[in-house]
Amino acid sequence: MPMFDYHCTACGKAFEALVRSGDTPVCPACQSTALEKCPSRIAPAGKIEAIRMAHRRVAAAQGHFDHYSPSDKAKLLKGKKGI
Ligand SMILES: [Zn+2]
Q1: CA of 6 to the centre of ligand 1 (A)
Q2: Residue 52: its pLDDT value, please?
């Protein structure tokens, strides 16, 4: 699932969103869909794992991991240290 940077043209907020094809992201601040897509920034080395885990937690909260067993889900959310 690609991650994009967006800039809200309604309130000016910049944010990142994971977007499935067909989905329209909305501004987390004002719920506007008047967004500009920006080229994704390159994550600094060392932050990538943290970013990945943050996105996994978001995905889990949204139910994307519901096809995993609870123990597999726990492993996914624990990251490298837990394996
Ligand atoms: Zn906005």
Answers
A1: 10
A2: 83
Which of 26, 22, 23 lies closest to 34 in space, CA to CA? 26
Rounded to whole angstroms, the Cα distance separating 13 from 11 reads: 6
The residue whose two tokens read 């909305």 is: 26
Å from CA of 31 to ligand 1 middle: 6
Using DSSP's 3-state secondary structure scheme, residue 69 falls into: coil
Domain ranges of the chain: 3-38, 48-82
Instruction: Using the mean position of ligand 1's atoms as its centre, give its distance from the Cα of residue 21 in Å.
Output: 21
Total Cβ atoms within 10 A of residue 63? 8
Q: Please name every residue paired with 8 in a beta bridge, in sequence order, or none if there are none.
A: 35
pLDDT averaged over the chain? 82
Tokens 């994307």 belong to: 64
pLDDT, tens digit, 9 for 90 and up, residues 11-34: 999 998 888 878 889 999 999 999
